[in-house]
Write a structure and sequence with these properties.
single chain; about 325 residues; alpha/beta; Rossmann fold; eight-stranded mixed β-sheet; four-stranded antiparallel β-sheet; 12 helices; globular; binds adenosine-5'-triphosphate; binds magnesium ion
Length: about 325
């Protein structure tokens, strides 16, 4: 499988009044053409930061403090402003977590799509552009594309805004699509349609898709591989079926145990304990303070990703991963 994106040992920091937040530490991941790779983890684990670092849209108080990001063989971190402009929106589309904020409030949806198309493609004439606008709006299952094209963002529902943003992203047939919490705020039916659409993109266009969500059901439905992020560190990665059937990291176990099936109304049980503060990251394993498997060593020894299974490249960052695999546990009671 041809490699599309490779993130290697990425570190990201934010400067705040209280000090420096080390939001991503030593994060690595790979994504191939025609592959859907999920990123899961609790709120604050760094999922959006990872996406923003890839498209070089970190907030102004943030910076990449180490590591590399390679896209189609070239180094994104050293790309010039001009190079980035031609990559963003054309070869990489980023559908941000907050669609209302990402859309331009003073332009109609149609005008925003047309702008992207005209910026990046050789489109001959206005009617050709209009045809293409309606085509992408229909592609994301928005009813009455002619009507929607003339609407302003505030005239659409949250779910429609999300799909409008996706339409802008798709309008240039990107090679890499980054979706940040794409199903938040969608009802179950719209969510199912949206996931169908994303799966089609993968097979139809051979696009690579980075799917960021705290919803493991969504990942198990459509992703090929999954990366589990916790407090800025990757704790487990591998094929979705394998990781979900036999998690090799206590955090993944806990996350799975606290996730209701997609569409079910089972209560979500929180994982006891709290994510450590990222301005003073503790020694040893980042999950040790919440972990039922933790020994003294876990609080002092830094752990690397270790191979659990070579065939699917399943890895876990845990001193006790063999015990974890042998002892699938429920979440410890409060
Ligand atoms: P969610 O599921 O809520 O979207 P997330 O996994 O996307 O969470 P991020 O938004 O990437 O998490 O945040 C990761 C960490 O970085 C958090 O501790 C957050 O407070 C911090 N952070 C993000 N952006 C900034 C910023 N501009 N300044 C300071 N800290 C930030
Ligand atoms: Mg986020």
């Amino acid at each position: 499988q041809e490699q599309l994106l490779r993130v290697d040992s990425l570190d990201v920091k934010f400067e705040v009044t209280e000090g420096t937040i080390h939001a991503l530490r030593n994060v690595s991941l790979e994504l191939g053409k025609g592959e859907i790779v999920g990123i899961a983890g609790e709120s604050g684990s760094g999922k959006s930061t990872l996406a923003l670092a890839i498209v070089r849209y970190l907030d102004t108080n943030g910076w990449v403090d180490g590591g590399s990001i390679t896209f189609q063989g070239s180094d994104l971190l050293s790309a010039s402003r001009t190079e980035l402009q031609s990559i963003r929106g054309k070869r990489i589309a980023h559908v941000a977590q907050n669609p209302a904020r990402a859309l331009n409030p003073s332009m109609t949806i149609g005008a925003q799509i047309r702008e992207t198309i005209e910026l990046h493609q050789d489109i001959s004439g206005r009617s050709e552009a209009t045809r293409r606008v309606q085509e992408v709006l229909a592609q994301v299952n928005l009813p009455n594309p002619e009507v929607i094209a003339d609407r302003y963002p505030h005239e659409l529902s949250g779910g429609q805004q999300q799909r409008a943003l996706l339409a802008i992203g798709l309008s240039c047939n990107p090679d890499l699509l980054i979706l940040d919490e794409p199903t938040t705020g969608l009802d179950v039916t719209t969510q199912a349609k949206f996931l169908d659409l994303v799966s089609n993109l993968k097979s139809e266009y051979d696009a690579g898709i980075l799917l960021i969500t705290h919803n493991l059901g969504v990942i198990s439905d459509i992703a090929d591989r999954v990366n589990i992020l916790y407090a800025g560190e990757m704790l487990e990665s591998g094929p979705v079926d394998e990781v979900f059937a036999s998690p090799a990291n206590p955090y993944t176990q806990a996350l799975l145990a606290t996730t209701p099936e997609i569409g079910s109304d089972k209560q979500v049980k929180p994982i006891p304990g709290r994510i450590p503060e990222l301005d003073a990251v503790p020694d040893g394993c980042i999950f040790a303070n919440r972990c039922g498997f933790a020994t003294e060593e876990c609080h002092t020894t830094d752990v690397d990703m270790e191979t659990v299974d070579t065939v699917g490249d399943h890895r876990s960052r845990c001193l006790h991963w063999e015990d974890v695999v042998d002892n699938p546990i429920d979440v410890p009671e409060e």
